[in-house]
Write a structure and sequence with these properties.
Blueprint: H1 3-11, H2 18-29, H3 35-48, H4 52-63, E1 78-83, H5 91-100, E2 105-110, H6 120-125, H7 136-146, E3 148-152, H8 159-170, H9 177-190, E4 195-202, H10 211-227, E5 231-238, E6 246-247, H11 249-260, H12 266-283, H13 289-301, H14 304-315, H15 321-324, E7 334-339, E8 344-349, H16 351-363, E9 377-380, E10 387-388, E11 393-399, H17 405-412, E12 415-418, E13 428-432
Parallel strand pairs: 1-2, 1-4, 2-3, 4-5
Antiparallel strand pairs: 5-13, 6-9, 7-11, 8-10, 8-12, 9-11
Helix pairs in contact: 1-3, 2-4, 4-9, 4-10, 5-11, 5-12, 5-14, 9-10, 12-13
The structure holds uracil.
Uracil (URA) binds at residues 165, 174, 179-180, 183-184, 207.
Amino acid sequence: MRFTDLIEEKKAGKALTKEEISWWIKSYVKGKIPDYQVSALLMAIVFRGMNEEETLNLTLEMMHSGDILDLSSINGVTVDKHSTGGVGDKTSLVLGPLAASCGVKMAKMSGRGLGFTGGTIDKLESIPGFSTVMPRDHFLRQVNRIGFAIVGQSGNLVPADKKLYALRDVTGTVNSIPLIASSIMSKKLAAGSQVILLDVKYGSGAFMKTKEDARRLAGTMIRIGEGAGRRMTAMITDMQTPLGCAIGNRLEVMEAVQTLAGGGPADLKELCMAGGRLLLTRSGLAADAEEADRKLEQALSSGAALEKLAQMVHAQGGDESCIYHPEKLLQAPHRTALVSPAGGWVVREDALTLGEAAMRLGAGRAKKDDRIDPDAGIVLQVKPGQQIEEGQPLAYVYHRDLLTEEWTRHVMSAFEIGSEKPETVPLIEEVLE
Ligand code: URA
């Protein structure tokens, strides 16, 4: 087989065979095909696409390029959840303990944040002492004992994706539904869970800018997962506006704790309840949505879900007193209010602009090796559809260095204040099963 033949075939719009895909991935991981040839094939895929069979074959080949987690020693139904990423998305910190306290076993591998989107590992590591690295047998034991563990992605999980993603990142080939779907699903399948919930976001603060693309990506990932024998479900959700109010690592942990304690922003609770409902029904732990809701509400009101987070933090070396006294996490030296220049209605709070502004404060990293400031961030005080007065705080900024005029101008451009009550979009656009 010659790699140039594969490039020519795809350039002409033909489908690659299972054997061709297998040879491509195996040889690339072994370093036998140069990056410049693989980037030419990736670009041909961006323009010509891949059919369902090719996408499934690519995913399975990538999945088998490294370690595969064996979760068979875990008693109960193993579940996983993946968000395609967004601003203020602390869902895993709420949904994980909430669902685990209702009986599911969540063995989760998460990533770090890059650019304007946050990552669960950075949020957890902002809790003093918390470790996201542990031997495989400890990880499995913790899931069996507590029902819930989150660690960073193991070194040899889907090495094909590590190489391909790094190449896509610098060759303008990220933006392709079959490539994104195979990248995400190869990691989810290798992580071993039986039930997989996808939160596919659309809007300015998401990978997918439109609902239609989010729906297509979700459909492709569901078919891949089902083709590989997993129980799949997906929510299509809005990321035009940040999720909840807090953006920034410790601030988001605090908001997750408030939500588990029965408070927290309404949108965050809505999303976690919807995700919990799907996980419990798909796992067979609730007969229907009503029974799932009863169990989830009981876990929140009894304190069981909050206690589950504290148990997990303790098991992973973190200071669990921060879960019962989250104010201990608040350590930024300065808090500054951003006030509304006019009265009226909040029409828009742009997730992308707010995510970028938080990143520039130090809450995220622009480049992979940047250090993050766990204390930095923004807490929104209003949400779209709310009526406000001139001078009312729109948000509080938590920061270490003085805010520049340019930064303040940039962050203020995220807020649009109008004279009429706007139409608001539903947080959950659709659920796909
Ligand atoms: N997240 C991934 O893991 N892979 C992609 O290709 C895009 C987002």
